[in-house]
Amino acid sequence: MSDSTRVLVVTSSILGTHGQSLGLAQSFQRAAEQREGVSLTLRDVVADDLPHLGLEELSSWQVPEEERSAAQRELAARSDDLISEVLDHDVIVLAVPMYNLGIPSQLKAWFDRVLRAGRTFRYTENGPVGLVEGKRAILLGARGGKYAGTPMDSQTPHISHMLGLMGISQLDSVFAEGLNMGDDAKEAALTEAHQQIETLVKAL
């Protein structure tokens, strides 16, 4: 990476300060703050309280900017601002808990606004092509059970495909798993995850 690396950290835990995925994000933040030339932007999609994407908001994207009503401009700004934030950063860090084998609905609401045809990807005769270039992503996953590498892990492919739709194909993952499988398993998993995070941050 260049000497100036801009990192966007997106958190999505509904448990507030008790969320283990937030703990992983904070570990990343502490390590990154020790690095010269690394700047961080924090985006908490739960605190943002993004609503589920609806037809009215989706339709506002289809109206030329100069023709939008005041209400349409306000609705379209949600997506416009989030897309600009992604484009302004070099690394996208997603701190993600696993809820019922999937991602939090708040994070899905974020993806629904940054995955936008004509802005972050386009359709071609050969399928969609990502328009977001030169970026990498890091997934920090916190899970009560152990799912990585098994058919039960529907979360990781989903995230990978959504990032890939934008054109972000480089994805590094750190998982803290088995967090509800006893104190010893939890401590060991978190210790290993924090060590992996430090290694990733050193490579920024």
Write the layout of secondary structure elements.
Elements (H helix, E strand, L loop, with lengths): L4 E7 L8 H13 L5 E7 H4 L6 H8 L7 H18 L3 E7 L7 H10 L6 E4 L2 E4 L5 E7 L12 H12 L3 E7 L6 H20 L2
Parallel strand pairs: 1-2, 1-3, 3-6, 6-7
Antiparallel strand pairs: 4-5
Element order: H for helix, E for strand = EHEHHHEHEEEHEH
Net shape: globular
State the CATH topology.
Answer: Rossmann fold
Overall residue-averaged pLDDT value: 95
Task: Explain the overall architecture.
- By secondary structure, the chain is of the alpha/beta class.
- It has one domain (5-202): Flavodoxin domain (Rossmann fold), CATH 3.40.50.
- The chain is built from seven helices and seven strands; from the N terminus they run E-H-E-H-H-H-E-H-E-E-E-H-E-H.
- It has helices at 20-32, 45-48, 55-62, 70-87, 105-114, 155-166, 183-202, and strands at 5-11, 38-44, 91-97, 121-124, 127-130, 136-142, 170-176.
- The strands form two sheets. The chain has a five-stranded parallel β-sheet.
- The longest helix has 20 residues, at 183-202.
- The model has no long low-confidence stretch (mean pLDDT 95).
Keywords for this structure?
single chain, 204 residues, alpha/beta, Rossmann fold, 5-stranded parallel beta sheet, two-stranded antiparallel ribbon, 7 helices, 42% helix, EC 1.6.5.-, EC 1.7.1.17, oxidoreductase activity, acting on NAD(P)H as acceptor, FMN, flavoprotein
